[in-house]
Prior knowledge:
This protein is α/β, with parallel strands linked by helices. It has helices spanning 17-25, 39-47, 98-116, 137-156, 162-166, 181-189, and strands spanning 6-9, 31-34, 52-56, 63-68. The longest helix has 20 residues, at 137-156.
Amino acid sequence: GLVPKVGWQIDPFGHSATQGGLLTSSVGFDALYFGRIHYVDLLNRQTAAECEGLWSSAPDSSSVFWGLTGSYGGNYGAPEGFCFDVLCGDDPLVGLEKTALVDRIKLFTNALGKQANQTKGRNIMLTMGMDFQYSNARKNFENLDLLIDATRHTIGIGEINVSHFLGEDRFDNVNIFYSTPEKYTQCKYA
């Protein structure tokens, strides 16, 4: 009895008016997220801060929210350097000394700032996995939990200045947490 409200396409390699209208908006989706678009279109959208938006393509003028995944980099994985799967080469956060952890959190917040400045509004979605990942879910979630906690802590005590890495007046805080594409869509519509 559940009706999906959000579509998620990992590898579509192309989009059309039919996709936006008949296969997304007309079936009742509130949003469609996808990772891949043409590299020229991707660069133009990153530069213009339009990596998300409303897709109005249906004959009845209805629209659906769409967004790129994967830190708006043309894929759907974690920000560079923050893949915690055993198949990734990125160093884990668990076990780092405080100074090294703060340095990694600074890199992470810089990635957040870059992504935030490629879209409109005050919310961004981080996708934290790729194909065949989470083969050791415990390791992933231990590192993700630490990433969330350490980011909140370092910003909360002023060790990282939000305006420094976001560089815009529209951001005065960072609230990082686990969520779903449906909840993210609700935030973007709000």
